[in-house]
Amino acid sequence: MITLPSEVKKFIQTIREVGFECYAVGGSVRDTILGRPTHGWDFTTSATPQEIQKILPDSYYNNNFGTVGVKVADDIFEITTYRREGKYSDVRHPDEISWAKTIEEDLARRDFAMNAIATDGEKIVDPYNGQKDIAAKIIRCVGNPGDRFAEDGLRLMRAIRFASQLGFTIEEATWQAITKNLGLITKVSSERVRDELIKILASDFPADGVKLLHTAGLLDHILPELTKAVGVDQKGTHHVDDVFTHSLKALAACPNPNWVVRLAVLLHDVGKPVTYKEVAGRATFHGHEVVGARVARNIADRLHFSKEDREKLYMLVRWHMFSVSEFLTDAAIRRFIRRVGPDNTTDMLDLRTADRLGSGTPKTSWRHEQFRQRIIEVQKHIPSVNDLKVDGHDVMKVLGIAPGPRVGIILSKLFAEISEDPAKNDREHLLKQIKAVK
Ligand code: ATP
Ligand code: MG
After folding, report:
1. What is the pTM of this model?
2. By three-state DSSP, how is residue 330 classified?
3. Which of 75, 115, 174 to mutate to test the pocket of ligand 1 (most atoms within 8 A of CB)?
4. Given a cut of 50, is residue 91 above it in pLDDT?
5. Which of 87, 255, 272, 339 suits 124 as a labelling partner, its CA being 20 to 30 A distant?
6. Least-confidence region, from 144-153, 171-180, 306-315, 380-389
7. Does ligand 1 come within 6 angstroms of the Cβ of 196?
């Protein structure tokens, strides 16, 4: 038996009372069996969307797949009429969907056995032995894998995404079919590819996911710029691995759960293959962060990231070579904060931690910690005009002028100077400057 939450059972009951069949199905059933938290319940029913809407007056019906949504507590329940296979993404009009008659037909068009389990809280319909696969941690296509992938190329990535989310293994025939059907991914819209890539990055095993994408041959289609790093050796540097291996190790070590930060970690050296030069037997990569940031921005555009995500990715790659030297002045720290943005300093430092761990250096250094502290200190004290070593009285005295707006203008000119270079906040110097800037 699969124990469903009471509001899920109640929902199924509401539909059944009117005489229709209704089952919970898909990811949340799978996650409940696994004892993992669920997000969003999916239901399948013999009722048509129009019939469901009559039963649930507060529901909405606004997509192309015959799915009706309804808000229950703080969750969204989505209920879809039994379907036969129609192309998953290419259906543009609901009339192109052909409704199925039975739950078995509906389950037959789903992607993986573990996702094709239906239950109403009592009866379990599991024609592909999904429960057995879940127990064995296996991802296996429903029916013939080659046919399933041909119907929807995104399933190639979904298999790998579930592997990295759940820590499951892809069953052999399913895996073989992935490697034989790589080209199908190019037919999938970049928005759908992006969403799967994001889920892989945000998963518990992001580096294993990216490695699987690479082993399968999919990464060449998704992030070809990154596969160029395969075999780019870094001899004569502190790195023991080639650039690709280092990037994967850094991703695996990333302490930050944010997918943009994780992608920045994965791409931080993406400029290295392009800038590689061997000088006196040593590998050099001058300007790789500048080139890499541009490459990352192109990737973000190709995958239709939001402007905000794109700019953050760009910034993290662009400035990842920052110094944490103990000799940095406060002005240099302020410049760092200005460049990356006050809200991004932690993410930038986490990228550095991942980079260090990914190249086999210890987790952190005292310099790194001191730098982190200094960022906090410097941010506590944002200088203002009141911090100037001269004041309005000095200005009036030096210039022999009366109180008035001019005094303020001169002070703010002096302030502009010292915020660029705090060393200039010296009384002698400023007294001279009063005349210079007037
Ligand atoms: P998650 O919600 O964590 O992304 P999920 O398994 O719930 O995982 P959804 O995309 O929400 O995945 O889809 C719900 C169910 O619909 C799946 O479990 C599966 O049965 C079916 N499904 C979704 N997308 C596809 C697809 N591309 N091909 C076949 N079946 C699919
Ligand atoms: Mg879901």
Report:
1. 0.86
2. helix
3. 115
4. no
5. 87
6. 380-389
7. no
Q: Alpha-carbon distance 105 to 145, whole Å? A: 17
Give the residue, out of 84, 110, 200, with the most ligand 1 atoms within 8 A of its beta carbon, to mutate for a pocket test. Answer: 110
Q: pLDDT tens digits, residue range 51-62?
A: 999 999 888 886
Q: Return the axis-axis angle of helices 307-318 and 259-267, rounded to nearest 10°.
A: 40
Q: State whether the beta carbon of 152 lies less than 6 angstroms from ligand 1.
A: yes
8-state DSSP, 99? B
Domains recognised in the chain with CATH numbers: 6-136 (3.30.460.10), 144-222 (1.10.110.30), 232-379 (1.10.3210), 385-436 (1.10.246)
For residue 111 and ligand 1, the question of a CB distance below 6 A is answered with yes
- DSSP annotation of 241 reads S
Residue nearest to atom 21 of ligand 1 (CA): 110
Residue position matching structure tokens 């995104």 = 154
Burial class (CB within 10 angstroms; exposed 0-12, middle 13-18, buried 19+) of 66: buried
